[in-house]
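Subgroup meeting minutes
Present: P.N., E.W., G.H.
Scribe: E.W.

1. P.N. recapped why we're keeping a running log of single-chain structure predictions: easier to compare across weeks, and new members can see raw inputs and outputs side by side.
2. G.H. added today's entry (331 aa).
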Amino acid sequence: MRLLVTGGAGFIGANFVHGTLRERPHVRMTILDALTYAGSRESLPAADDSVRLVEGDVTDAVLVDELVADADAVVHFAAETHVDNALADPEPFVRSNIMGTFTVLEAVRRQRVRLHHVSTDEVYGDLPLGSPQRFNEESPYNPSSPYSASKASADMLVRAWVRSYGINATISNCSNNYGPYQHIEKFIPRQITNLLTGRRPKLYGAGANVRDWIHVDDHNSAVWRILEGGTPGATYLIGADGEHDNLSVLRLILELMGHDADDFESVTDRAGHDLRYAIDSTALRDELGWTPHHTDFANGLRDTIDWYRNNEWWWGALKRQVEAEYAKHGQ
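Output recorded in log:
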């Protein structure tokens, strides 16, 4: 099988590449990545007969068409994803997430190639704290940030291309991922690397906001299940029943790393900070038989801490730069 993986040098994409090499050695992957700050050659295995990296922009129609023509399927991870960055400058999110998806859609339409589009639960907005509600495939879209609005737009484009042009595409909306190779600007790796470098962890506001955490390997196993057996045109929600508020996650990190549970600093909350995400993945589990493997959040977090502790070569040079950017905004 020949697979084109857009955004394959980013966090989730790189883990998808590593997992595919481990579990599906017959697959040949071409990775298209612009290698912006969020993508790294160092996140990928060495190039060989199974893996080829092409540095390029997902909005480059000529390049994308050429790569799609040589693939049996496309897994579209490429996206700008950091909410704080989107609030500061939304233009790259519109270009990458909307125009990039449009470019991929046009290529798979011309070449008649299977597409799986990877999206986020943030397109649904947020849920009240303490409620039993969870997002499902029928939940209305209600994005609340430039990032989630750009991903919602991309999802709608995919649906329109399925209906208007009959392309063979599926969509997945996943909850918050954690695991190896995640950029240290994100919540969990930022707190881990703060502690590893002698800095105090930072918590937005009171930390009451709830996220539904899933290990990146579980996310990617679901993507493969959808790619191989999903119904054309369908949307699947991916979640592992991992709801935790940010304060609890931070205190668990502190505990696992041998620090006092209150050894952190509160900073000004993010503008428009979504309250709660929660995923109902019943359809995925019932239709395709998928189940998550990493069901113990503390164990998954412990493994993630160990990865960052043992791989400072991967993140160490970035740390001062990332913290300097946060400091400009009092975060």
